[in-house]
Amino acid sequence: MSLSHRVPDLGALELLIAVARHGSLGRAAREVGITQPAASSRIRSMERQLGVALVDRSPRGSRLTDAGALVTDWARRVVEAAEAFDAGAQALRDRRDSRLRVAASMTIAEYLLPGWLIALHADLPDTAVSLRAGNSAAVAALLLAGEADLGYVEGLAVPDGLNGVVVAHDRLVVVAAPSHRWARRRAAVTPAELAATPLVLREYGSGTRQVLDSALAAHGGLAAPLMELASTTAVKSAAVSGAGPAVLSELAVTEELASRRLAEVPVEGVDLRRALRAVWPRGPRPTGPARDLLSLSRAR
User: Fold this and answer.
1) Which of 137, 145, 174, 287 has CB atoms 3.0–4.6 Å from 205's, for a disulfide?
2) Is 216 left (phi over 0), alpha (psi -120 to 50) or beta?
3) What is the pLDDT of residues 103-126, one digit of tens each?
4) Whether the Cβ atoms of residue 248 and residue 236 lie closer than 8 Å to each other
5) What is the CA radius of gyration of the chain?
6) How far apart are CA 246 and CA 236, in angstroms?
């Protein structure tokens, strides 16, 4: 027979300690939040389990037997150990809940996540947040290695080994410096032209590159890049300097388009929309601050 069948549960032991403290089954029942009949039934069940009488009941109250007094001393040690266990578990939960490790692809990290994290800080001011930014493949790798609690990616689908949910939508745009010939043309660029033209691009593994590769696969695929850069900021700078046309998130070029440092180049016949996703290791949804950030980013 297992130990759990031979040792009374914590609720019964706490009731017995309360009887010893009050000398009354009724007052002990009120302390632990049950009715007196339920308390009497629990004491009788414990007596049958242990094979000894624990409480003498009389019109003047309830008194522990000698065996009951000894069992109560042991019960106090068990309850104290349980309280220590609970305190330790709570400390572990607090340690977990006091930090949040986020990994995000570059566009989300630069243009969406700061606002989400400011809102999270208002709700959870004691939570320390660390952020690692990289392309979507790097975000997936961090999550699978247990080095991040929640991730955000921009690719075509949820990476292998992860679960995810769409939190926003985005559109890629073709941009060029105002001096570039594409910025001055009236006709839209065709998919074949876009595919055949060397562009300033993000690296393989980025969500932007995945979407563009997929969109142009039926039109001959991308030409060899004019430049292949590892950050959105670097791609923008190259485009602004006149190096060549670039493809970037609409979120990333709002300021440059408004100030006319870049011009949007119309493109016809190609779908450059994409979903932005929150992702986490396959299994249950995130808990603690990661759950809160997930809810917040979906709501916004």
Assistant:
1) 137
2) alpha
3) 999 889 988 999 999 999 999 888
4) yes
5) 32
6) 8
Please tell me the distance from the alpha carbon of residue 250 to that of residue 265, in angstroms, as a whole number: 12
**Residue 149 · residue 286 · CB < 8 Å:** yes
Residue 245 gets which letter from DSSP? -
Residue-range domain boundaries for the chain: 3-95, 100-292
- Give me the CATH topology for the region 3-95: Arc Repressor Mutant, subunit A (1.10.10)
d(CA 109, CA 256): 18
The CA-based dihedral angle spanning residues 110, 251, 104, 241, taken in that order and rounded to the nearest 10 degrees: -60
pLDDT for position 174: 97
Tokens for 155?
Answer: 């690719």
Distances (CA, A) of 253 to 185, 206, 295: 20, 17, 27
Question: Cβ of 288: how many Cβ atoms within 10 Å?
Answer: 16
- Please write the tens of the pLDDT for every residue from 3-46: 767 889 999 999 999 999 998 999 999 999 999 999 999 999 99
pLDDT of residue 97: 61
Classify domain 100-292 at the CATH class level: alpha beta
Question: Which tokens go with 85?
Answer: 């266990």
